[in-house]
């Protein structure tokens, strides 16, 4: 399973087999059940997750008491509450397995030690954060630009495999509307 | 002026004086007039800007033909259209000086060369992107959580110096409402 991380690192940085044997010791493997919570609101955010297999989501409970999903993570994506993780603070988010998943995770302390012992990993994480930031900037533009309906149509066009895989009520939660409203939009799209 | 960058790097990574003399050669200085456009929609995004003095904003023209501001950058902040910059693509954004500003900028090619010649700069940019990403994640939560009115009240409470400095019509553009509506909210806040 560690090979998935090894191959992902190799896309961005050169790490020898010997070094990777050391690097992987900083990580632990975790198997989750479907719907298992890895992080809950109010807990100190200690872990950064790398998805080997499966699908996670991040959400918070909004003032109406409903779950607002802000992020998904599929294979080779990293996910955490970055601000709380870096500063070891209590989080306002939940991280939950949407599917039965297999993950690697690292603690904030170990990520710091890893970067000190293997500076080549700075390059890897620089790419990880750079791309995640660029994607978040795109998301912010989308949130302003599109009506929720258009946002859904875009997602269906650009990420059909994702829309197929994620349960409809979670797509609704990501887009910020009710499952009933999503069901109406889908009918419109199919007609 | 280069000392501002040097001090900012020193917060995150150890760079010797000799190395910094080499590093700074990758950058150019630019002085801008107020309202000068550094990047326009449709242009290839070639530069990453570091603000030494002044204030920049990033915006796009939405379907109604109005300017939607998505980001500001003050002293020691970096700004670009990251996706277009990394991939050397045409941008959908404008970057404009809100005040007369002094900037450093680097091209995408030079940033890559800099990172190859001085791997210690990977650590610096890893921190830059990591924090920018965490801030963007917070922004996304805010965009979902708060009504625009609450968003303004939050900004006044948390960043009063910023609200003072940025012209009101640009605050309105950042929050996605008309200057008239902002003016009504401000009256409410003062009353």
From TrEMBL, chains A, B:
CDD domains: CAP_ED (cd00038). Residues 33-117 form the Cyclic nucleotide-binding domain. It comes from the Bacteria. This is cAMP-binding domain of CRP or a regulatory subunit of cAMP-dependent protein kinases. InterPro entries: cNMP-bd_dom, cNMP-bd_dom_sf, RmlC-like_jellyroll. Pfam families: cNMP_binding. The keyword Kinase applies. Signal peptide: none annotated. Keywords: Kinase, Transferase. The lineage of its organism: Bacteria, Pseudomonadati, Bacteroidota, Flavobacteriia, Flavobacteriales. One of its GO terms (molecular function) is kinase activity.
